[in-house]
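Help!! Second protein's tokens look totally different from the first
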Amino acid sequence: MSEDSSDSARRGPPAAFYEPGSYNPNDSVGYLMRRILCAVTAAVERELEPSGLTHAQWVPLFKLYVHQGTTVAELARLCELDAGAMTRLLDRLEGKGLCQRERCAQDRRVVRLALTEQGRAVAERIPVALSRVQNAYLAGFSREEWLLLKSFLSRVLDNAQQGCTGKKNP
């Protein structure tokens, strides 16, 4: 049995937790996750307000800080933006003196992205804000509950990445 088919067998058929006739959007796991994500995003943005960063700006700045995405195309993919939107966003970050574009010496067609010294100093505050906000939202959870929640969310994400929509794939 291949790894994919054994994984599929272990998961079994899609669950039927929701029914069209009794569907309540306020009781939807997706709706709850979206509300949590919006609340966390707003709280992190408030935490980072003194740095002048918006959500749209701190995400790519943080990805550069942790060395994810070194080109415009990579960063755009990681931030789920098109290349044009990422270019405009990088223009703003560059205008603030937080990052710079550098031509690759080996291939002049490639433009690498790098944080400036000021950008690194600002980016260092991002994990502080993320930790503070997420810890506040997890108040009252035990370590075991936190690990269990992460495992549940990872499973939901795995299902989503496999295109699990309840429809049969051809």
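Here's the second one for comparison:
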Amino acid sequence: MIPPTTFALFVTASLALVLIPGPNHLYIVARGLAQGRAAGLASALGVEVGTLAHITAAAAGLSYVISRSATLFAVVKWAGVAYLVYLGLRALTGKRERGGAPAPQPLAKVFLEGVLVNMLNPKVALFFLAFLPQFVDPAAGSPALQVVLFGLTLLLLGLVSDIVYACAAGTLGHRLTTRAGDLRYVSGVVYLGMGLAAAFTGRK
């Protein structure tokens, strides 16, 4: 059983992390601004499903394997970079509705893109490898189970934070509908910026 003091410390540290705007928040905000609150929420749910995949990988030791293998890390890294660049170029050059607004994407596709954006982000895999084990106590039971419990706690806290950002961005995007044509540039630049940041991610 995880000691209550350790769990409380983990929750405190996790809250500090999820309250700081990060790449996932930028992605969700870009989606919310471009396509409204529903798209922002779909992105948030997709991102956290991607987080669930990282939790599973960390518990199974796959994150460690990827971090130690230059080839596997490079595959994940450059797949993520390519996907983010694709999203950025699509936002900048894709089909437009009257007034220049980007053509809306089906929410199922928005959700799936959120999953892929998070799963293909090597920084997230390295984060789970570096952060969660600090709170694991071998004397408290199965380390893998502790990683899962800590990971799910972080996921729930992150989901609440993501939903707040999604709703705020969706509301702001609705008010800026008269400038919807300009919002595509915001989304495109955010995606390209995330791709550039992922490109400079190293295993260390």
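Reply: Different proteins will give different token patterns, so don't panic. Residues 35 and 201 are 29 Å apart (CA to CA).
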